[in-house]
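Lab notebook, bench 4. The sequencing result for the construct came back, and we need a structural model before the next group meeting so we can plan mutations. Quick request posted to the team channel:

Model the 3D structure of this chain.
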Amino acid sequence: MALNIRTSKHAPVAPLKGRRLAVIGFGSQGHAQALNLRDNGFDVVVGLHAGSKSRPVARRLGFKVMTTSAAVKAADVILVATPDTAIATIYRKDIAPHLRKGKTLVFAHGFAVHFKTIATPKDTDVVLVAPKGPGHLLRSRFLAGKGLAALVAVHHDASGRARKTALAWAAGIGCARSGIIETTFRDETITDLFGEQCVICGGAAALVKAGFDTLVQAGYPAELAYFECLHELKLTADLMHEHGIRGMRFLISDTAEWGDLTVGPNIIDASVRKRMKQQLKRIESGRFATSWIAETAKGGKRLAAMRRKEAKHPIERTGTRLREALQGGTAASPAKKTAKAGVKTSLL
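Done. Here's the predicted structure in token form:
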């Protein structure tokens, strides 16, 4: 389908005026969206279970904190900003029993709806508002008078105003300042998972580590390997983000560009593209979702073991030492500051 891009003139916040908003979950997206909406003058409550460690954090930030079920009862528009694999349980226990005609459910990612881990009622509007970036960046851009682009979609329009509500929510969190792209739940879900796994997280992390290992195993200093394979990645990615791939190539040296054009396709070759296509089919078929849900149902033991193993990779020790030295041991990134406040930062 053709993508329709909307900005502030196409997305007035009026459809949210006079309606109480609830944010269920206070992680990466939840905290940022709640703060942005409140700063834009909306009545926002936060819904969290009784034992949530985020409760004192939300209270310190001045929010009225309620149980999830109470927040759903009290609100007209409800953002579900909890982990994908937790949504089904939370939805069945604390959300679904309290939905009534005229309410709107907003999702920050289409996973639960698209893969049908939940069944939404026909008399409730169900929409998607997915900022294209982590919560701390959504918040910092908002405070700077800017915004992140967002995807919006409508799964069910019971009231006839679901699309307007979705656009208003996107505008309320500041995304209309950048651009709002209309899409579908399916397309957002599949492309988001594919991008995370094959390129921006899984692909990039594996490529960085492989490059680092290759240089170190060949006898080169770990510090230089870190600079060349990780540190400068952000600088180059920023150029691509701001100017596109062609613009990045114009701004780097001719030597770097020649290496890019002649060597890059040999590294990311036909075999890599074949495996990307295979992974896309695995995502589309729902096999990835099924395996991820099964992993969390077992307590996430495999994930925990992989985290421990990855934390021991030499690139982590090298990076920690270099970042502390370069920053004088005092500078903290926005993500670190947010984490210290008790808020998890992630792309989800």
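Residues 329-335, 337-342 have pLDDT under 50 and may be disordered.
Will bring this to the meeting.
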